[in-house]
Sequence to fold (236 residues):
Amino acid sequence: MNTAQNPAAPRILLIDDDDELTAMLSEFLVCEGFGVGTAHDGQQGETAALSGDFDLVVLDVMLPRRSGIEVLGRIRRASTIPILLLTARGDEVDRIAGLDLGADDYLPKPCSPGELVARIRAILRRIVARDEPAATAVIASGPLRLWPASRKAEWAGALLDLTGTEYSLLEELARHAGQLVSKEQLSVSALGRPLTAYDRRIDVHISSIRQKLGLRPGGGSWILSVRGQGYQLVCP
Fold:
């Protein structure tokens, strides 16, 4: 693993077996103010991702020794580090599988370095706690408790294990508990970008959140959906 040292910068791990692409992206990221590390196969990448030395992982799906999807699942069982998945353009199966396993976002290849940096910054903005007075407040709705400053979540007194994107979506729903929140609003507020046609990212993340919350006492989900419109958290 090679690392470009910049101790004060957010540290990005690139896991991709394309040496030329990795070198180009690394140089661009360093110029944009990031610290960068690289790994060129799934096994090496998994070890680096779990080392605690990085703030975000950019993970290619197609890797030797261990596939990117497998690496993603293994990382998620041990860590909540933000993960941006690089997928083949048009491969919806990998995208949905990646989001379902806990990826925070995906980007089809080939991608421009500028778009990659924009996605990385958007994820980090959602993950890093903001030093704002409002962020110190606790958001409470039924059995749900959220601490925006630390991005901690509890459900019925137990720690709720969420990815960064799942937390952002649940916080937005909790801030409007009992109200319908449009998919457009969720995309802008929680994902940091406008909703695009046929984009299923929100649906997949909401499905994962529902599984983690379980069912209401009388049955049914804690998050209701209105087809084609949005979602509503029904915590009293």
Q: What stands out?
A: The domain at 133-233 is CATH 1.10.10.10 (Arc Repressor Mutant, subunit A).
